[in-house]
């Protein structure tokens, strides 16, 4: 064997060796890809959230373990499952429209009410994505059960409403307090602006307090009320009339000069209601030994 033949043989062996190395690398890469694919499948199959694929006819193509558990179906039921079995309010037309949106937007997160096999409702958060594979189109959905979250939100909302109601009641009591100063006399000091809501609260507190305390006289002190218009004056008159139906009287104290002028200008008739210039005068007139609480103005 001459030198030229040996060199050719060496060249052929090197080429075969290179080809073997290339094949080995391809095999190793293929093995790695298969391992990654197997790991991906394992991850999807054992994910905590439910995962499903639908084709555009609405047929369920795939459910992972969590999806079967969430909806209560056995794996053998997959062949007959459709999107409407899971989401009764979803239609094939909506599925096609959703696919078109997903092509442009990538993914869409929505809250839906899904249905368990037993018919019970399951509030879920669903992330929808579009997939095209081997000439077929699919909707891939990652579904999170949010029943616990909704339950916590409802409890939090109920607690918040309780707090708001308690605060409203506290404000009502503070805005229109009823203070007994004797067995038969109570005082309601009013401070700030009186609107229709507060006037209604005032009347409710008055009537409930008069009945509960068996009061014979209620002193409404308006020293801290900056403005008395027709609406407020009318509320005083209506309160006095309602209190009289319970067998008690109303006295208004603390009418400031500017308020008196306003009442005269408005033509408000307070002759049916006892009045005193100050709370001190009203208390003196109301308590035993005072100047009497049966007259008109003082």
Describe the structure.
With 298 residues, the protein is of the alpha/beta class. Helices cover 50% and strands 22% of the residues. The protein folds into 2 domains: 47-145, PAS domain (Beta-Lactamase), CATH 3.30.450; 176-286, STAS domain (Transcription Regulator spoIIAA, 2-Layer Sandwich). A 5-stranded antiparallel β-sheet has the order 2-1-5-4-3. Strands 6-7-8-9-10 form a 5-stranded mixed β-sheet. A hairpin with a 2-residue loop joins strand 4 (121-133) and strand 5 (136-145). Helix 6 (196-213) packs parallel to helix 7. The longest helix has 43 residues, at 3-45. The protein is rod-shaped and about 145 Å long. Mean pLDDT is 84; it is low at 292-298.
Number of domains: 2
Biggest sheet features: 5 strands, antiparallel
Rg, Cα atoms, Å? 42 Å
Please provide the ordered H/E string of secondary-structure elements.
HEEHHHEEEHEEHEHEHEH
Order of the strands making up the biggest sheet: 2-1-5-4-3
Strand elements, count = 10
Average pLDDT reading: 84
| Helical run tally | 9
At CATH's second level, what is the architecture of the largest domain? Answer: 2-Layer Sandwich
Tell me the quaternary state: single chain
- Shape descriptor reads rod-shaped
Q: What is the first-to-last residue Cα distance?
A: 144 Å
Provide the low-confidence segments as ranges: 292-298
CATH superfamily of the largest domain, called what? Answer: STAS domain
Proportion of residues in helical segments: 40-55%
CATH domain class name of the largest domain: Alpha Beta
């Amino acid at each position: 064997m001459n030198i030229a033949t040996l060199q050719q043989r060496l060249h052929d062996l090197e080429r075969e060796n290179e080809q073997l190395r290339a094949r080995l690398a391809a095999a190793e890469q293929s093995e790695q890809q298969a391992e990654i694919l197997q790991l991906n499948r394992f991850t999807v199959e054992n994910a905590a959230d439910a995962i499903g694929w639908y084709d555009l006819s609405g047929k369920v193509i795939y459910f992972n373990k969590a999806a079967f558990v969430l909806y209560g179906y056995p794996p053998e039921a997959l062949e007959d499952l459709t999107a409407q079995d899971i989401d009764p309010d979803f239609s094939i037309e909506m599925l096609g429209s959703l696919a078109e949106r997903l092509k442009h937007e990538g993914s869409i997160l929505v809250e839906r009410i899904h249905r368990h096999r037993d018919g019970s409702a399951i509030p879920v958060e669903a992330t929808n994505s579009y997939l095209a594979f081997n000439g077929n189109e699919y909707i891939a959905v990652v579904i999170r059960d949010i029943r616990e979250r909704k339950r916590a939100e409802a409890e939090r909302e109920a607690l918040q409403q309780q707090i708001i109601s308690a605060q409203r009641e506290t404000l009502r009591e503070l805005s229109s307090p009823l203070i007994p100063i004797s067995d038969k006399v109570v005082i309601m000091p009013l401070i700030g602006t009186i609107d229709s809501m507060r006037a209604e609260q005032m009347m409710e507190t008055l009537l409930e307090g008069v009945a509960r305390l068996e009061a014979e006289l209620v002193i409404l002190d308006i020293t801290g009320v900056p403005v008395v218009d027709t609406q407020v004056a009318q509320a005083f008159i209506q309160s006095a009339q309602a209190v009289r139906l319970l067998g008690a009287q109303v006295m208004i104290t603390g009418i400031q000069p500017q308020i008196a002028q306003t009442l005269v200008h408005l033509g408000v008739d307070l002759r049916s209601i006892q009045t005193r210039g100050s709370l001190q005068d009203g208390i003196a007139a109301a308590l035993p030994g005072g100047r009497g609480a049966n007259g008109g103005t003082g």
